[in-house]
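**User:** My hope is that you can spare some time for a protein that puzzles me. As I understand it, each token names a local backbone shape. I would be glad if you read both lines and explained how they fit together. The protein I mean follows directly.
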Amino acid sequence: MSNRQHQWLILGRGLARSLATLGASTALCLGVQAAHAADSPMDPHAHHHHMMQAASTTTSTTTKSVDYKVPSIKLVRADGRTVDLATELSDPRAVLMNFIFTSCTTICPVMSHVFTDVQQKLGADSAKLHMVSISIDPEHDTPARLKDYAARYKAGSQWNFYTGSAANSVAAQKAFAAFRGDKMNHEPLTLFRKAPGQPWLRIEGLATAEDLVGHYRTLIAAK
């Protein structure tokens, strides 16, 4: 082997080792950003495929049961109505909740696509589930923007989107230990509650639709 060939071999091995050190979160960002760039009204199915492919690169989720006291916080639904968070979450249906913002190009599109798939997989049973997405960027996410976002993800009537003042958005995040100081530090989190007064299942990481439907079936069947 010539000196030049040997140098190229060492360089190639070094590059391979560097690529191998990329974390799952970096791979997710790159994959979702690429999917977002390729996204267009002409190719929604390809976009969804890329999103789910990106999500599959992440690490597994962790779950734990937590008792959260939902505070009385005024938020604004995508339909423009001002509502109380505690009242909205006292719905007798099961509640599936996440925190998103509409200009996000990394984890939020993945989580929103997962919610879309959950309602599709549940079919008629999705009416028994109250799906909740709360904006962590209320200055940008007006009710009109949330309404457009809901349409983009084919949200059914059981899936509501909320915005409000910055202070109230932060208060809602802190109530569920979801506040990370800045929207760019946003981490994937899904919360599930069977009924009012019951503990919440806290799911950290990017859960799949199969994961969430499985949790729904298990908790609903539990006595």
Observations:
- Confidence is low (pLDDT under 50) at residues 6-58.
- Residues 97 and 132 are 4 Å apart (CA to CA).
- The domain at 62-221 is CATH 3.40.30.10 (Glutaredoxin).
